[in-house]
Amino acid sequence: MAESTNMRLRLPLLCIILEVILIILFGTLVEYNDDTHAMLWNENRTDSATRNDHENEFYYRYPSFQDVHVMIFVGFGFLMTFLQRYGFSSVGFNFLIAAFSLQWATLMQGFFHGLHHGKIHVGVTSMINADFCTGSVLISFGAVLGKTSPVQLLVMAIFEVTLFAVNEFILLSILGINDAGGSMTIHTFGAYFGLMVTRVLYRPNLDKSKHRNSSVYHSDLFAMIGTIYLWMFWPSFNSAITNYGDPQHRTAMNTYYSLAACTLATFAFSALVNPEGKLDMVHIQNAALAGGVAVGTAGEMMLTAFGAMIVGFLAGTISYHVCCCFIQDTCGIHNLHGMPGVLGAVVGAVTAALASPDVYGHGLQRVFADVETGKWNPQSRGGFQAISLAVTLGMALFGGLITGFILKLPIYGAPPDTHCFEDGLYWEVPGEEEGHQELYEVATSNEVEKLSS
Amino acid sequence: MAESTNMRLRLPLLCIILEVILIILFGTLVEYNDDTHAMLWNENRTDSATRNDHENEFYYRYPSFQDVHVMIFVGFGFLMTFLQRYGFSSVGFNFLIAAFSLQWATLMQGFFHGLHHGKIHVGVTSMINADFCTGSVLISFGAVLGKTSPVQLLVMAIFEVTLFAVNEFILLSILGINDAGGSMTIHTFGAYFGLMVTRVLYRPNLDKSKHRNSSVYHSDLFAMIGTIYLWMFWPSFNSAITNYGDPQHRTAMNTYYSLAACTLATFAFSALVNPEGKLDMVHIQNAALAGGVAVGTAGEMMLTAFGAMIVGFLAGTISYHVCCCFIQDTCGIHNLHGMPGVLGAVVGAVTAALASPDVYGHGLQRVFADVETGKWNPQSRGGFQAISLAVTLGMALFGGLITGFILKLPIYGAPPDTHCFEDGLYWEVPGEEEGHQELYEVATSNEVEKLSS
Amino acid sequence: MAESTNMRLRLPLLCIILEVILIILFGTLVEYNDDTHAMLWNENRTDSATRNDHENEFYYRYPSFQDVHVMIFVGFGFLMTFLQRYGFSSVGFNFLIAAFSLQWATLMQGFFHGLHHGKIHVGVTSMINADFCTGSVLISFGAVLGKTSPVQLLVMAIFEVTLFAVNEFILLSILGINDAGGSMTIHTFGAYFGLMVTRVLYRPNLDKSKHRNSSVYHSDLFAMIGTIYLWMFWPSFNSAITNYGDPQHRTAMNTYYSLAACTLATFAFSALVNPEGKLDMVHIQNAALAGGVAVGTAGEMMLTAFGAMIVGFLAGTISYHVCCCFIQDTCGIHNLHGMPGVLGAVVGAVTAALASPDVYGHGLQRVFADVETGKWNPQSRGGFQAISLAVTLGMALFGGLITGFILKLPIYGAPPDTHCFEDGLYWEVPGEEEGHQELYEVATSNEVEKLSS
């Protein structure tokens, strides 16, 4: 006997309680930073005008922020619409958990990344970081897509955002490593967290819903909207929070070439693994993006277009040769984020270990901040990058395990095995067939002809 | 006996006449401004290079402009595709009236907002303002969607753009108030103008078309494209024409938090008001955006993320508790633009009344321009903001009334009550069913298999 | 007896070989430019800080680049989804050949446009130029859409990119003409190259597939996504590589007004040419964009909004009065890119011939680079622009002829006449009908009701 999936009280209560808590915490803890505060930004302007408006971080970061924002809401949202009858939930729940996560992430990241006299300072950079953390939650969402209620997803987001901030704090602040595009912090963490959650939530009888666990023609076209947006804006994603100037420029370019090379590998292997040589749209939707993930760490380094293309080609290739379907990974996040994220961490470690003033000149300290403090050493830097991967995997798997067991409690209105991948459970779903048929009839009817004659 | 809906002469004649008039007026009245004119921009560059290229307004405003442009053409256009058989008209008429309105708005706004020796100066800021005015027309379009011919819509745009410019002139130039994101000038004006027009055009027998006045599965997904784009780019909308530096940065951020909080309220109330606790996609499409509207006036002020989230949460909440369906408001613009616009005006008045140099420092005059002239007084400022709301409501309702009666004349080829919400009246509509069925057959046919073996 | 269309070996082999060659050539020839190289960008920063980060070309060009990128992948990709059963191929092959072309274009353009000590320097400007060249290939793709295998398309791209770079070199470097938005280099070249290829590949029995060579309701809505994105971002396209400051600003604005005027002409003539006065979505998808093409050359000049609107209106008009359907131009690229491109070249020649220091002031040399060298003469400049058109047409037609014959070899797995415009040949195509029907049934089933009660 399945539990009720009715959301009438559970979802509103959870949303309202969460939002009220968020509002109280924002009221207590959050302040404008120097670039968004009317007084602070303008205080030095009266004398020597040391800060001109074009130096406000807004103009360096906002276009990248908007691209990242599009990836989070359109990219992830529509990528997951490939399921034939789960489009509302894919876009809708993506919308809900992203809107929650970015608020919660602002608090968690602000708390760990340095309070200013007990206050969290916010501006466009914190907005990008909050979107990044949200991206990690949406990656995990991909693994459990179709098998969870919106209440479960919100609960998952609460825990995942918190652990994401802890892991990010360990990597960036304690170990002091580089990961501008988040190969480790975002992709590896999000993927293995999600894979562990879906493993714990394993449903032995999921094949009762397997006829819905596939795409139809139009749903694949909607999903391509998501794929293409993620693909196009990945250069902005990886470069959004690097240092200004050459690092930001270089990161965008390395990512661009990695993705292009990855796409050719993707089409090659999609045709090769199919007995009739036919391309598979769902494969392409995922594998073509692996190139962006895999240069997430090394993108800001002097990887060169050549190096980026090799990494992209490898990422597109491995994305076809590993599968975690046995643990019910709905969107194949192991292929899209997990493996390429690990590859990205390794590439980042190697590239960092090879960094030297001969190549970077005075630019070295703009990529590796600890050069200035004199503690920098390329080999140990490479080592720290590698340690970070291990920490991330540990945090993700352990966090996913705990969270998975919490989500297993029968209080969230999870769908029964027979009704997974089904919008009708949580949404008012209008019909489809009726409309079209009538449309066709009316459009060709004599009446219309008469009216417009 | 209904009038003919044939557009063969009416629409081409109107379009061509309007465009010829526009071209003549542009030729007579419009000039490049200082930042787009080859001579004017470069005249001082030979000596001390007082103006660097990065100071051209293009680099401060163009990314915001493009986001606003996407909201106007993709956001509004696809938001209205939720109707099952009105997708062509939603996107297509949106396209037509927006392309007309932005040209007409350039003239009207230029005329009222200060001629330079009898000439209208254009650049990226005038382009943003023209898009803003167009947005107001598209809001009204949402109220009459499905019940009007393209000729009627163009005529409505002629009047609405003109009155918009007059109202904007009264508010910004005479009363000297702030409304960067247009809670009053754009949303309140557009909504109540449209509601009055649709009231005057009331059709007692509209239920003859009610089977088409609803969504189908795929049309709701297309509409989500519109919703999500509006939602994502609203921070750019509200900040597009604020002062450079901290005001632009702050406005984007306040809007971001308002929208996030609004979204959680939206999902909460959508599930709560449904007897089975199911979410309603059309509700969410509209209510989630109310948070952007409601911080349109106060967004550039020191509202704080905390204040923005409260406003957003309220906006998402009230959006469920009022309905103007009885006056045949097709897209529910009263909930999305009307109520939240009024809320935004009130929040703006309160926030302006609370402004002080203690909070804003030297930044005060960058938000409230009249500080410099010494005429500034926060309380009277708050009062002027409130008066502006009354003026806007008056202009919108009176203008809508007149325009409604003009649109009632039986010369525009309006659809009969039996054929509202129907693309087939004005468009060559291809079938749908046939294609798919054949597609499916062919795709699985032996012949294809043989070919690719 | 048709040849096999199986792609299992052909496509993977070609993709992998091409990518390996690209990687080797990038490794040998490509270097970071001054703005992306850590050492070069930072070398002067230690002393007088002559270069500030905001002067990095990234901040002038990257937002435009992203808009162009969206046009290439979403704009072109979805524009071509109008065919009822060719959506996967339209978006998918667009994706594949664009990802290849931008890499190959980087090499070809870098080779012709000036090596630096034998090396090609890359940065955001080369990325935009590579995307531009890719755009030209995608235009040609529009002519052969539905009648070619992905292997043929890749082979076409190899030749077209190469010839594009040669033609661009002749025009920009030898003849020294202006063509920032590519009326000639991109649109005229791409269109006539593609038209010649499709002419050579003429299929007398194509009517065997004619029932698939049309749109259905939803495919036209997907195509509108492409149209609208192209339309909105065309100002960014034309202005992406102009000089900084007033030229970039002016180009964006001229394009904006040209497109708006073109759209009104488009709707006028679409209704006028239809016997029942009904609008045709496919017409509008193409004609509305002609205004962007037609100001591609003159956009950066002092064309004025008035001039731009006249050009746009003309472009929208001629787009309806010529047809090249008899040579099997699937997407009507002759109307969208061919004719408007030629118009754009003519407008550019006239506008250049009328240029004078009286109008441009010190800005003259920022538009016409040869002013500084003293070789500038407006009349001869106009003449060179006209010669460039002839060169472009010659190169395109001759190149298309050769390439067409190469593509005619029966080794690429081209579709038979009976299976053109059919995704099922190269893609795993899921069904459509089944899903929906079930969806509807389940969504309204008692079981669901019970679960959520």
UniProtKB/TrEMBL annotation, chains A, B, C:
Protein name: Ammonium transporter Rh type B-like
Family affiliation: Belongs to the ammonium transporter (TC 2.A.49) family. Rh subfamily.
Species name: Sinocyclocheilus grahami (Dianchi golden-line fish)
Membrane topology per record: Multi-pass membrane protein
Superkingdom, natural source: Eukaryota
An example Gene Ontology biological process: ammonium homeostasis
Primary location: membrane
Assigned keywords, A-Z: Ammonia transport, Cell membrane, Glycoprotein, Membrane, Transmembrane, Transmembrane helix, Transport
